[in-house]
Amino acid sequence: MSQEKVDRYKKEKANRKKIMKKQRIKNALERAALVLAAFAVVGWLGFSAHQKQEAKEDRPVAEVNYDAVNDYMSQLSKG
Fold first, then answer.
1. What tens-digit pLDDT sequence spans the chain (79 residues)?
2. CA 53 to CA 57: how far, in whole Å?
3. Angstrom distance (rounded) from CA 77 to CA 48
4. How far apart are CA 74 and CA 15, in angstroms?
5. How far apart are CA 23 and CA 17, in angstroms?
6. Any residues with CB less than 8 A from the CB of 1 and at least 6 apart, and which?
7. What is the distance, to the nearest Å, from the Cα of residue 20 to the centroid of all Cα atoms in its chain?
8. pTM here?
9. Cβ atoms 12, 19 nearer than 8 A
């Protein structure tokens, strides 16, 4: 090996712990980002499915009896 390669190897060996620690932190952050993205996608899919299911259900219809109002209005117009 040339002296250049030997010096580079010694330098890498001296900093190996730092390099490995940085690599582990980087890998952990990448995994965490992927997990968050996966949760976001699953949550979005669940919310969309829930919205579609809610839209399919029949909504209750309120019926209003206007007979009393119509009688009152007819009495006003007669009188």
1. 689 999 888 888 888 999 999 999 999 999 999 999 999 999 999 999 999 888 887 778 889 999 999 999 999 888 6
2. 7
3. 53
4. 96
5. 10
6. 9
7. 33
8. 0.54
9. yes
